[in-house]
């Protein structure tokens, strides 16, 4: 439980905030957030976020303003892995960065993932230049596991990602 923020499913009216983020290169360069050219594209994206099972808006408790997003994705190559492993994605509006909001949001999400969903591990990937997210992950108990230069896998990609892992036992020991 957090006194300052809460998580909620996405709504159609979140499209204006998604458009703001989608038109700012900052979010694309640090996190690969999609570029949206207009409100129609952002409305489609809001619908896609709303349809995802574990995708949540991060909102301020006092004003209910959407300030970020957190998501859990399936991760694995077989049924056993898919049942016990997730990957996390997250984004925080830069106006609210540096105040601990994402730490609180991810704490809520991980308590849910390791508690109710009975996950054994959560993975996170970051662009190599996203040092703030890497520091956040380490502070939450994640350990660096490997890096991948995706440009060597496909011509569609031109970046490298670092992957971090948080195991359930490590989370429980920290909390």
Task: Explain how this protein is built.
Strand 2 and strand 3 form a beta hairpin. The chain has helices at residues 15-22, 25-31, 39-51, 79-84, 101-115, 131-139, 168-174, and strands at 5-8, 55-60, 66-74, 85-92, 121-127, 143-149, 160-167. It is globular, with a radius of gyration of 16 Å. Strands 1-2-3-4-5-7-6 form a seven-stranded mixed sheet, sandwiched between helices. It has seven helices and seven strands; from the N terminus they run βαααββαβαβαββα. The protein is α+β, with helices and mostly antiparallel strands. The model has no long low-confidence stretch (mean pLDDT 92). Helix content is 37%, strand content 28%.
């Amino acid at each position: 439980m957090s006194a300052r923020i809460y998580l909620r499913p996405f709504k159609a009216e979140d499209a204006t905030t998604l458009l703001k983020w989608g038109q700012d290169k900052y979010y694309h360069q640090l996190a690969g957030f999609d570029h949206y050219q207009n409100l129609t594209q952002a409305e489609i994206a809001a619908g896609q976020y709303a349809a995802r099972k574990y995708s949540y808006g991060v909102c301020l408790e006092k004003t209910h303003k959407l300030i970020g997003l957190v998501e859990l994705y399936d991760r694995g190559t077989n049924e056993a892995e898919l049942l016990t492993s997730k990957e996390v994605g997250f984004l925080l509006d830069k106006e609210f960065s540096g105040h601990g909001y994402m730490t609180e949001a991810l704490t809520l999400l991980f308590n849910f993932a390791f508690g109710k969903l009975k996950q054994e591990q959560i993975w996170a990937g970051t662009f190599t230049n996203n040092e703030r997210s890497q520091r956040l992950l380490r502070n939450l108990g994640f350990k660096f596991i490997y890096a991948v230069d995706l440009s060597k896998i496909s011509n569609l990609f031109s970046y490298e990602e670092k992957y971090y892992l948080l195991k359930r036992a490590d989370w429980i020991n920290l909390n």
